[in-house]
Design brief:
The chain has 124 residues and is mostly helical. The chain has one domain: Helix Hairpins (Orthogonal Bundle). It is built from 4 helices and no strands. It is flat, with a radius of gyration of 19 Å.
Length: 124
């Protein structure tokens, strides 16, 4: 049991290392990740400044994190497509466009949440 627990803790540790490497690599090469990160900081600041409920704050913060996750997935897709097929190909374009659409939908979800919350503050 102790050996199993130690192995699991090592695995979690390595997972954290790999995740951090991915974040650093994307941060260094992707302006969109840096832009969305800034938008997230501003969004989080507004969420704590405005009189929102804990649930509303949680929604805003979670959607911001999901938006960053979508941007990282888009970066991963683009990187793999560029590695596998440096030439223009309709399927490569489709994969990249779908990754971009994922980011757009996550941003739209965050925007809708903000719009609904702000409408409620304004009319309530």
């Amino acid at each position: 049991m102790i050996a199993w627990l130690g192995a699991q803790l090592r695995r979690i540790g390595w997972t954290c290392v790999w995740s951090w490497r991915g974040w650093i690599a994307a941060w260094a090469s992707e302006p969109a990740l840096r832009q969305w990160s800034l938008a997230n900081v501003l969004s989080a600041a507004a969420a704590f400044w405005l009189p929102l409920t804990p649930g509303e704050r949680a929604l805003i913060l979670a959607l911001g994190i999901l938006l960053l996750a979508a941007e990282l997935m888009n970066t991963a897709i683009e990187t793999v497509v560029n590695l596998v097929s440096p030439d223009r190909h309709p399927l490569a374009g489709k994969a990249k466009d779908c990754g971009s659409a994922c980011v757009a939908l996550a941003a739209l979800a965050a925007g809708v949440a903000w719009a609904v919350l702000l409408w409620g503050l304004w009319t309530g």
